[in-house]
Amino acid sequence: MSTDDESFHPLGEEWEDELETMLDDTEYDSDLGMEMAQDAMRVTKGELSESEFHERYHEDVMEEFGEDERPTKEAYEAAQEEAKGTASNMLDAFDGDGGETRRETMKKMGVGAAAVGVGAFGATHDPPEQSLSAAEGGHSETTEHSDTQWGMTIDLERCDGCLSCMTACTQENSLDQGVNWMYVMAFEDELTSSSSPQPDVVGGKSDFNMLVRPCQHCTDAPCEKVCPTTARHTRDKDGLVLTDYDVCIGCRYCQVACPYGVNYFQWDEPDTDYSELDESHTMGEYEHGERWVDSRAPRGTMSKCTMCPSHQDGKRGDEKVGTSACEEVCPPNAIQFGNVKDEKSDPSQHREHPIKSRAVIDVERDVPSPDTLDENLSEDDDLASATEAVEDLTTELVSIMKAIEIVSRDTETDPGEEENNTILQKQETILEVLETLESYVDLESEDVLAELQLGSGESDDAMVRLQQFAGNPSAKFKLLEDIGTNPNITYLGQEPGPEAEQVEGPTKYEDVGDLVDKRQDILDEGTVGRVDGVSL
């Protein structure tokens, strides 16, 4: 491990010290865990090859754990063939709840993900200027065999801090109180302003800078590189980074290697018994069988956000494929989940066309049906008579519908048959309604375009109108993108700076069900995590 005073961990020296202290309380080699985590991040940065990393620690891992199943390019296929049970001789018989337990000597301490301050994710450089409509660069594929990579675009300027996503995640996965796989944080940043700039636009917005932090499901995940058992692994078919609870031995090396601080160690028996879990959560589908990778973890194992594999595997019904529990309940539609490799998907549309996407989301629910227009309009109508004849059809609504149509002329509008391409589906609905309206009303004349605030009807004029309505995201970024993990979550909104500080958000945790903010609670509560040692 590095002997200088500079921390190798992106979350800083205090976080690194906490992790080292945590490893010291386990039965496993803490020095080995810290050194492997440091070099795993060197691999993601391109400073060390996968084969060099594997060779460097192979003997030590064999001596400490009895075998070394870490995936490398050379050994990957063989490891996947064996998949489940590769470390079976490392585990005592364990039924998950109430039967024989894992190693009784395992210490019952762990650092919770909540102990990371907002400033730890701060950009220490001037963010590069990016066009929000330009193609996303540097996004590498997760596997050579799949065109699917589940991920998200999270619109932080639309997040109102209601904590609905956290509640839904807790309920979906039967998580113990305080084990928050999603985290919603409000922050202030001296480098920008004390609070977010808030233009008066449609959509859920708060008076705070917000940060929503699930697992980033990295394409090149350091946590996977240090796992001796293949418990932490990337699933071939869709790029989800998951943990096989039957294989995990709780060494917590993944927790040290994670740049984002999203892992939890389940040190006590879960509140929800295994027999009470929904069957759809207990086995995820793989080419070579099934693995238990979803829902709350059994005692002595690691857990984190899974992006709902029970949904993606169709075990909750075909309509759930391409959705996540957090996305489904978000009132302001701040979370867009889907296949980030598909340009038609919700996260891709919201990432590449956020202004139009916001407008589509906001107005689609208000447009009248084509049948309603046919029943109330005639060929003699103009804009004024049409808005008077059809309830809730306003000049502003027509203006935004027409602006969406103009800016969509040179882009793909067919949603296709993929799962959860709802933004393009909503856009198609808007365009169908507009086509019906224009069969009665001329919306192309100079006078009408001027009344609709669309200038000469060019794309630039329409984009300005949509921006006036829906706002223009201040930035687009990925958390800690410079360390090379290729996270599969893109954020729209204010990126926290290194001096960003968490502040009390618009909704208190104690006011939302059984949520507990680990930053404000002590381990005496019986939940995972600590609050000491890390400045917020």
UniProtKB/TrEMBL annotation:
Q: Where is this region: Disordered?
A: 122-149, 337-383
Q: Kindly indicate where the leader peptide sits in this chain.
A: none
**UniProt lineage:** Archaea, Methanobacteriati, Methanobacteriota, Stenosarchaea group, Halobacteria
Instruction: List keywords of the entry alphabetically.
Output: 4Fe-4S, Iron, Iron-sulfur, Metal-binding
Compositionally biased, Basic and acidic residues: which spans?
138-147, 340-368
What Pfam families does the record tag this protein with? Fer4_11, Ferredoxin_N
A GO molecular function held by the record: 4 iron, 4 sulfur cluster binding
Ranges of Acidic residues compositional bias? 372-383
Instruction: Spell out the InterPro entries in the cross-references.
Output: 4Fe4S_Fe-S-bd, 4Fe4S_Fe_S_CS, ET_IronSulfur_Cluster-Binding, Ferredoxin_N
Q: Which Gene3D superfamilies match?
A: 3.30.70.20
Q: Which SUPFAM superfamilies match?
A: 4Fe-4S ferredoxins
Name this polypeptide is given = 4Fe-4S dicluster domain-containing protein
User: What residues does the 4Fe-4S ferredoxin-type domain cover?
Assistant: 150-180, 239-268
